[in-house]
Structures are given as structure tokens and as C-alpha cells.
């Protein structure tokens, strides 16, 4: 059977299996069982007429589905399903060995019976060779396989944060390539631990200066890019601190103004209700005339 015919048969088997599942699950009353039995019988007949092959049976799992569903069918449908399954089983046994497996066995027998002095290669060796080939293809890019030096430099770049004293164990031309991926803080830390690196890193400091500061801040003549970066960094930190101080003073000034405004609101004359509470319900408090007369005497 061609690939197109096999695919068509597989789709038809899948559709029949889905309909069988629906009809079987909806059987609730004897009347429903009679109606569903007729439809299930038609679907079984359709399966009997379909051109089946072992690959279709294996992919669709139609045999397992029939075994599960036929327990709730009528005796007649059970018998037909059982005969159909027996036929598929015989078909599976007769076509168990695929053409690819038969060809592999034939090649193996011919290699064993040949008089060639070279031993036959086992499948494990072939799989190992294929795995190595896949790994090599993954390593190879458009520019070819990386050299050992490139691999070492890449490994050093990935572990640059672990560096301490190098003590000249890495050649200067290689260490410069490694330090290209360093941040300014990492570069400064490494130079403190390895003072001899300062002679090789001026170009790196130039790149950091141009990347982090504007052209107006960089003078035309520079004697040391490392010193320039340090000075510009200090100036930026001073500006940031000054901005923080101005913001802090502005916030404190607003807080003082808010407190003063709240005090003015509290000092204002109390409402009429509070005055009544203080002076009594009769209005304003009257002065004691007796005390006034005695005071004059």
C-alpha cells in the first residue's frame, strides 16, 4: 500500500473509532441500545472493508479500542468484533518483520559470510559515530570549527569574576582579549591585584570612557585613559550626591512649610460649637460684677 493510501486508511479508521466511542458511551436504555447497535454494526462492516496494514493498526490503536468497547455490545456485535480482531492479529503476525528490518538482517548475514578480512561494524559503533558527527556539526558554525585558543579564551571570559592574581601565567596578548568582556569595576579590581596589567589596558579604558561619557566631557589630548575615567567617574558621583542633597533639602523645606501651615490652622478661632461648650449654652460668659466692685474698694 502506498503512503497516500495508508494515510487515507488511517484517517478513516480514526473517524470510525471516534464514532464507535460516541455510540457506545450513549447507550442508556434498551431502546437506545437497539438504535446504536445498528449504527455500530455498520461501522464494524466499514472496518471489515477497509484495507488494513500493521502500521495503521499500530498507529490508531483500533484493536485496543475495540477490546474496550465491545464489552457493552450485543452478543452478535461481540462475535463480529472478535473475528475482526483475530483477522488483524493474523495480519500482524504475517507482516511483523518490516522491509527495513529484513534488509538489515540480509546485510548482516552477507557481511558475516563474506571473506573480507575487516570485521563487521556493530550498531553501537555506528550510533557512536553518528553521535560524534552530530556533536561536530553542532560545534561547526559558518566560520568552521573554533580553535583551541578560541575555546580557552571563551572559557576564561566566562570565569573572569573568579580571577585573582594572575602572576604572569597568562600571556599579555591573551589576557587583553579576555579583559575585553570585563566591566570597569572588574577591570579596576584586576589591575589592583595585577599592577602589570595597567600597561596593556589603556585601550580598554578608552573604550569605557567613550561608552559611558559624552564627547564634551572627554578632552582632546589624553595622557592616561584610566586616570581620565577615574576623574570623570568621581565628578559624576559628586554631581549625583549634590542632586541627592538638593532633593533632600527641598523635601525638608516642604515638610517645614506643611507643619507651619498646620499650626496656623490650629491657632485660628475655634468654631461656634466649641465656644458654646466652653461658655455654656447661654452664650458668652458674663463677668462677675461683685468681684469688680470689691476690686475698686
TrEMBL record:
Residue segments, region Disordered: 105-129, 277-297
Q: Where is the composition biased (Low complexity)?
A: 111-122
Ranges of residues in domain TFIIS N-terminal: 22-95
Cellular component (GO) terms are:
elongin complex
**Which keywords describe this protein according to UniProt?**
Nucleus
State where it is primarily located: nucleus
> Which SUPFAM superfamilies does the protein's record reference?
Conserved domain common to transcription factors TFIIS, elongin A, CRSP70
Could you mention a single GO BP entry for this protein?
transcription elongation by RNA polymerase II
Source superkingdom: Eukaryota
Tell me which InterPro entries the record gives: Elongin-A_domain, RNA_pol_II_trans_fac_SIII_A, TFIIS/CRSP70_N_sub, TFIIS/LEDGF_dom_sf, TFIIS_N
- Where are stretches of biased composition, namely Basic residues? 278-297
Subcellular location per UniProt equals: Nucleus
- One Pfam family from the UniProt entry? Med26
Q: What is this protein called?
A: TFIIS N-terminal domain-containing protein
List the top taxonomic levels of the source: Eukaryota, Sar, Rhizaria, Cercozoa, Chlorarachniophyceae
